[in-house]
Please model this.
Amino acid sequence: MTIEAAPKRSTWDAIKVFGERRALIMLALGFASGLPNLLIFDTLSLWLRDAGLSLEVIAFFSLATLAYSLKLLWAPLIDRTTVPGLTKWLGHRRSWMLVCQVLIILGLWLISGGDPKANLGLMAAFAVFVGFTSATQDIVIDAWRIEAAEVDEQGAMAAAYQWGYRIAIIIAGVLPLILSDAIGWSLSYAVMAGLMVIGILGVLWAPREAKHVIRDIDFEGYAPAPARDGIEWALRLAVVLIGALIFGSGLAGNATLLQSTTAAFGLPEVGNTVKAAWEMKPWGVFAQLAGILIGAALIVVSALPIPKLQSRPGRYLSVSLGEPFTNFFQRYGKVAGLILALICFYRLSDFVLNIMNPFYLDVGFSKLEIVEVRKVLGVVMSVLGVGIGGFCVARFGLMRSLVIGAFAGPLSNLVFAWLTIQGPQVWALSVAIGVDNIASGFAGTCLIAYMSSLTAQGFTASQYAMFSSFYALLGKLVASQSGKVVEGSAKIADQGGVFASLKNLFTGLPPETFASAMEKSGVTPAALGSGYVVFFVYSALLGVLGIILVFIVAARTADMPAGGAEPVAEAEA
Model:
């Protein structure tokens, strides 16, 4: 990976990448990925509420998407397992995609036949089933995208995927609501299940990926012992499930499922204690991080060989789950840790912007103004940013585009600091949201292309799932402190501290700006505005870490071939 001195393609050739067959197929696959996600999360909650269910029950259904946080656990199995009959016909990745899409259609059709009042538990099971198969589909789509295109085409492939995904999100969020009034929720979900045919057509039209290599596991010296192996498998899988439950709940920041599980086993106080610890302010984030680490440790322990016992379950799990990770560290050596740090910090300045709707309301914008600008202009600018990112990767090369994206995110956050002192001006809101969405779309596309370039043949699904998990981990934890940064800085400003001079920026603003500051945050309006300015500067400074890391990684990997150095053991083989 180097910061290329010369462009990879001409301008016209970079544009033409978007019209290639593979990019058009990614539109369909992105659509198939986005559709079930919203249907089992946001749209399903409307159906449940319409049926008269409580908010507590509805919130529990959101855990159906927990599989998306845990997909790295079974991604290695997808790399190693073939689909009888289909794999020979369609290839490794397309066969898995087709199976997942058929199962998603089945799951959505089963949901459509449910009644929230009479069969709530069954509908929840179907929602979890769709979540699991949809997460598995995402694993395979990412792997096919990486294996079907060159590195400089990954930006365009990622852009097309995101376009298709966003189209599906819009359709899944609007069409079922319109149809539910005319034909009812059940038939509207049946219609949505039918739209998954778009994904199936994409799979059938897609070319085969590069020949998939399944890396054999050497069981020489590991004699089968059916009874002992069966017991060991049961124990190891139990530890994996416990670890996955803790790890996934920690990533999601939601202990509801953990609480329900411990209660089912007669230990309600355990789940209650964990939930209270995670929700405790301001230190709950550290308890949540501890949960993630404990869950991860249990998963690692479940895959470790038992000392002085050569068992087949231990051998299979240690190789299938461990080899993708060791392969990455072998290929990149001492730079591997820096690369993972770059992935964690690259979009950190965007992740902390999780308080934007309250910010817009505090500035004095109406809900209608927020919706119009965010949902219309914001979506258009995001699509534009994604496209520009894909174009730049093809035109200027991956690392050069990655550097531009590292600057774009933090700098766009400073535009919100400017918006804070403009007051409720719709034109200023449009500028800020437009700039932010272009920058976010651009940086996101470059990061997806970069993570795709890091994978190795035979481990594509496993390693990309690992990178995508690292990408979100730190951001979710740090984002939990955003509100504290705003209100803490505002109190310092009110008390005459280091931020007090910022209050002078808000003397000429209209009275509706930060009007409820004292009621909601216990500070004066000017102090709350100062707190927001400090927060946006703080969010931009977080991005400086990503900027530094991208230059360090580019320099350290300048002499490496794409994909890193081949491990010695593999080179000899």
